[in-house]
Amino acid sequence: MVRSSSLEYKELVDLVPGELIRYNFSSGASLLLLLKLQENGRGLFGVIDSSVFEKKMCSYSMDLDGGCLSYGVNWFLEEHHGPETAVGYYQLQHAGLYLTSKGPLFRFMPEKSRFAVQHTYFNLMESTVVDGVDQRQAAPIAEWSIWETAEHYVGGGDPIFEMEPSDPAMTK
User: Fold this and answer.
1) Which of 17, 26, 37, 101 is the most buried (most CB within 10 A)?
2) Counted domains in the chain
3) Which pTM value belongs to this model?
C-alpha cells in the first residue's frame, strides 16, 4: 500500500525542533512547529494557525504529554515575494516570515504579553531559535504557503496553510 500523505501519529515527547505537527486543543486541528525543547521538560512551539489562539504566528510553551500528527521536518515552504520583500521595509512589522543574513526566519509573537514584546525567531534552515535579529536588516515576506512535501507542491496538491498579505494576523 502506498499513501499519498506522510502524516503519521507521534508522541509529543519524541518530536524534534523543526517538526511540523497537527495538534488538537479540543477544538480541531491546529498547525504548530516545535521550536525547541525546554529544560523544564516542556516544548516551545510556534503556533502557525489555530482557532484557539487570538492571533497566528505566536509562541506557546506546553507539556510534551500526549500525541499529535506529524508532517516531520521535510515540509515545504513556498515564498511569494512582493514589493514588501526588500531589506529594511519596516512598514510590514507583523510579517511571520523574514529573509535575513541568518537565513529565512519565522517570527512568533508571544501569545500574551503585558510588557515589551519579545519575539521568538526560528531559523528554518537550521531548525534553531536565534537571537539578535535586527528587523531593520530583514526583508519581510507577507505571503507564503506550507505544503506537506515538495512532491505535494510539484504535484499540484493543496497547501496545508497559506498566509495572505491581507491576513488580519499581519495587522495585530
Assistant:
1) 17
2) 1
3) 0.89
